[in-house]
Amino acid sequence: SIPLGYFGGIGAASRHGILFKGGNYLDAITRVNTVVFDKTGTLTRGEFEVREAHAGNGFEADTMLAIVAAAEGNSTHPVAKAVVRYVRLRGIEPLAVTDAKELPGHGLSVRVDGREVLVGNTRLLDTNGVTYPAGLASVPETVVVCAVDGVYAGYLLLADAPKEDAADAVAALKSLNINNIEVLSGDKQAIVTKLAKSLGIDKAYGDLLPADKVARLEELKAEPGRKVAFAGDGINDAPVLALADVGIAMGGLGSDAAIEIADVVIQTDQPSKIATAVKIGKVTRRVVW
Ligand code: ADP
Ligand code: MG
């Protein structure tokens, strides 16, 4: 049976917009000594903005954008939403697509007018043997590249800003003596490193596929004494949320799958609430024991 004090703790947490799925997690979170963050939508706002768009190989810019938006219309990824919004605002109608396949950590493959279209990061084009301007892979910004029938057709540059309380979130964890903090991302290493530095996080892992994130969590969990919380918005991250000692989902942007599988849901979307949750857990433990 659950000691009565945990109900008080769960209630206190809910008044802060923190939903504990059970008293056991209120206890488990006080033992966490490592916090692993997803980047997009967790430490950053997850609201990308298209900064630039350039067509290549003789494609018209509007045609390239119509193709890209058509593909991205089949994804709920924050990058996809930003691209669709940008193209719509320009009054360009997305084209009709068939055979849409989302490729986690890469982008999408679709058919438009009988043509084979790839829209995603440079890794997607690498995987399919499509060449593109050499500089694109190393730009320290999020890049969406488009290829039609195996030919590079253009790219967009996007940016996403850190959440307002992301730096506070890291500082608050450190003040609780939780100093092992990492960020894992499918985004480029250069972007992840830059963000981590600006927030005071030492370990930044970029260019990860969803399976690589799982592997990093397994590596951490194999270390004796390591208690790991993972915080993510859940897009492509449900397996990592499930694996962590405490899985924490961001409730605002978070996917339904993430909210379902998480042990703790932060409804306000603020990563600083992780430290708040630890503090409430500690106070509750004092009451219970
Ligand atoms: P993260 O949330 O850590 O960025 P994801 O696995 O969700 O990781 O995505 C990794 C990368 O894959 C993104 O940064 C982006 O470059 C690319 N990507 C994923 N989905 C799409 C999409 N629908 N359109 C374009 N690029 C995408
Ligand atoms: Mg994600």
UniProtKB/TrEMBL annotation:
Keywords per UniProt: ATP-binding, Cell membrane, Membrane, Metal-binding, Nucleotide-binding, Transmembrane, Transmembrane helix
Keyword flag Signal: no
Keyword hit for RNA-binding: no
Subcellular location: Cell membrane; Membrane
Family of this protein: Belongs to the cation transport ATPase (P-type) (TC 3.A.3) family. Type IB subfamily.
Protein name: P-type Zn(2+) transporter
